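Session log. Operator J.P. requested a structure for one protein chain; no other inputs attached. Running the standard single-chain path with token output.
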Amino acid sequence: MSTFIKDFIERETISRRNFLLATAAGMGAMAAPFAFGSGAARAAITDPAIAWSYRDRASAYWNSIVSGGEAFVESIGKSKDSLVSLINEGSSEKSLADIKAFLAKTNGKCAIACDANDSPNARPVVEAVRDAGAYISTIWNKTDDLHPWDIGDNYVSHMTWSDEKPAEQTARILFEAMGGKGGVVHLGGIAANNPAIERLNGLKNALKDFPDIELLDAQPADWDTTKGTELMASFLTRFGDKITGVHCANDNIAYGVIEALRAEGIENMPIVAYDGNPEAVKLVMDGKLLATVFTNPHWGGGITAALAYYAATGAFKPSEEPKEHREFYGPTILVTKKDAADFKAKYLDAVPSYNWKDFWGPSNGQIKYK
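Structure written below.
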């Protein structure tokens, strides 16, 4: 196993264990959820508790999301430890249960930033928050028929990223590197996740212009490095040298793909990824990845918490904002070898400072539904 991948997996395992222990200790003291009021937005909350509900801080992506949340809470004079982590480990049931427990512990006097883990889970999550009189802003996952303005002020906003076009761009870069012919495999995220669906759709869109490239298979790897290794190994067993390119739904999966290829002595396979994590940008600079896509998770994590917090304190009333401020796209940046060094210097070597009251500055327009 390569030193890079071995170190990554070890960090992932240790970080997951530490955060699970911390979460268990914090949540163990919480009372069971109880019935709240009718769901009408309460008066402004003085000093609301703040929480981020997310998948797993062992991932560089989610670590950056939560680091943005910590930067926000520090900007309002709190210690970063005051941001409560509700880690769901990829379980929608745990996501909802932990949020209900946090609502009970705070008596609804709280602001929550959340990725609901999968789209169907978003509705019960935001309805629980509304019924408690608390406030929530979500990212990534919700169903198309769920909108903040239908729930009320308690559902402050939803941000996602328009992944289809960037994923199509990375696919085109991949196909050009393949010489416009051959076989490609796709390793995706959790099947029900909006970004997993959009990133696969982007690949399929690009395929329309490359009739000599065959999509050999597309299977979920659940955003996970180890699952990426296992799935790529199975693809190699099934397809062998028919595989001439790999399209990965995120950077973590790409690390696993690289390890599986190295185990078979395969070097210089064209691979593209998504998320723009520091390790992936280094791999782009070294020519091990052709491209990745940065979604500025630090800003996304901070601004999602800020929106929920400032709505809770009465700094602004969500229902008075236009719809493009309630549902909007976050920013994306394509990173290739020609611009990776400049990108790294601007976004990774030193994290930019953000005005957490400029809620929609770097955003990318209102969400559009097909």
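Operator note: The mean pLDDT is 91.
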